[in-house]
Design a protein that fits this description.
Length: 110
């Protein structure tokens, strides 16, 4: 998808930004379930992950848990056992590879 911004100055002048391409980086990665009951989260991926991190942050942005994924083949489902010390509540889970965010999801731990 292509986008550009239209800016209107205080004097009524109009100018446009350059075009940018926005792609869906979420393709091929799925975290489930979004409501975790038995402290097990699943990651299904259609792309291979060489050195990735699954980072759990609370709603203040504080990182409370991190899980390393190394050499995960494509078309594989990985189970991630969450620590029992992880408090019940809502978390932002980010999947990063090489410092680049691939996917972010909201997960509720019950």
């Amino acid at each position: 998808t292509y986008y550009r911004l239209k800016a209107v100055t205080k004097t009524g002048g109009i100018f446009y930004s350059r075009f940018i391409v926005v792609s869906d980086n979420k393709k091929g990665i799925r975290l489930f379930p979004t409501s975790v009951i038995n402290n097990v989260l699943y990651l299904a991926n259609d792309i291979s992950l060489v050195k990735a991190n699954l980072i759990f942050a609370d709603l203040t942005g504080k990182i409370v848990f991190s899980y390393k994924l190394n050499n995960v083949a494509s078309r594989q489902t990985t189970s991630i056992v969450l620590p029992s010390s992880l408090a019940k509540g809502l978390y932002i889970v980010k999947l990063e590879e090489s410092g680049r965010m691939i996917r972010a999801e909201k997960i509720f731990v019950q």
